[in-house]
Specification:
337 residues, mainly alpha, single chain
């Protein structure tokens, strides 16, 4: 016996939008506040922080490239960290600024996945570079006589390549896991960018596998580097305590202070964000807390390294002095012509 199913015009299925069944084409980034009078202030603050981040980290890169005194493994990794910080901030802030300027909070599905991929990639790259830099400081202080032999150009290049490969694989895995999810009517993300955890929470299907992969990756790819950094510094502290002269102790400790400050700032704010988001799901508090490690930390890194590092300060003075001299020469030639 055959059966015929008739859908009447007043049936709920008749009015159901097609994308409710197959997926969504765009999301809405709610940002920090719905109040219109605060949007201009938010735009000015984040534009200022973004420009400071780009300019400050770009100065670090240029100083390490043009100053031969900084052609060492430590500053090689520092310049790569500055590059990662510029890209890290660029994945989120410009889109937010454009949305505020156009008074639109929409981001396409493809744009959201792309933003999430590059955010995970460059945040992971930050973590692994900080870990490699901790190893570099460990070798420099615990094995100073063999430092240049151990930290040779080949090993430095290999360590950098490994950090890129791990970052690519991790961000690719997480993005592919999100692509398998389906999203229904709830397309509002209570954040200023497409954050992985918020995306998973929006899905209207089973997310158990996504949560397992996400938490496993967090433990393995964030907890592992943090444990390695703590282990390196425990060895560094033991080595510094063995130095007889107070001046030697101070010199050894000062070489680690900049890196230790950046590590503390990045990991403390990151852990704070994810602990707060676990306690208050889908709230604006997570977005506000994310500003600390996603925007503020990349902005402060150049200041921390330049203020606490004599080599960087000297290189910046020489580089800026050279730029001023070149500008004066060019201006003089133009006036003569």
């Amino acid at each position: 016996m055959s059966h015929v199913i008739v859908l009447f015009s007043d049936s709920p299925l008749h009015h159901m939008e097609p994308w409710n069944l197959t997926g969504v084409s765009e999301f809405v980034l709610l940002g920090f506040s719905k109040e219109e009078e605060l949007q201009t202030l938010i735009f000015v603050i984040f534009l200022s922080m973004y420009l400071i981040t780009v300019f400050g980290n770009l100065l670090i890169i240029l100083a390490t490239v043009y100053d031969s005194h900084l052609h060492t493994p430590m500053y090689f990794f520092l310049s790569n960290l500055s590059f990662a910080d510029i890209c890290f901030t660029t994945t989120t802030v410009p889109k937010m600024l454009v949305n505020i300027q156009t008074q639109s909070k929409v981001i396409t599905y493809a744009g959201c996945i792309t933003q999430m991929y590059f955010f995970l990639f460059f945040s992971g790259l930050d973590i692994y570079l900080l870990t490699v830099m901790a190893y570099d400081r460990f070798v420099a202080i615990c094995h100073p006589l063999h430092y240049m032999v151990i930290m040779n150009p080949r090993l430095c290049g290999l360590l950098l390549l490994v950090t890129w490969i791990i970052s690519v694989l991790h961000s690719l895995l997480q993005s592919l896991m999100v692509l398998r999810l389906s999203f229904c009517t709830d397309v509002e993300i209570p954040h200023f960018f497409c954050e992985l955890n918020q995306m998973v929470q929006l899905a209207c299907c089973d997310t158990f596998l996504n949560n397992m992969v996400m938490y496993f990756a967090a433990v393995l790819l964030a907890g592992g580097p943090l444990a390695a950094i703590l282990f390196s510094y425990s060895k560094i502290v033991s080595s510094i305590r063995g130095i007889s002269s107070a001046q030697g102790k101070q010199a050894a400790f000062s070489t680690c202070m900049s890196h230790l400050s950046v590590v503390s700032l990045f990991f403390c704010t990151s852990l704070g964000v994810y602990l707060s988001s676990a306690a208050t799901h889908r709230s604006h508090s997570s977005a506000k807390a994310s500003v600390m490690y996603a925007v503020v930390t990349p902005m402060l890194n150049p200041f921390i390294y330049s203020l606490r590092n004599k080599d960087i300060k000297g290189a910046l003075k020489r580089f800026l002095g050279m730029a001023v001299i070149k500008g004066t020469v060019v201006t003089g030639l133009k006036s003569c012509l």
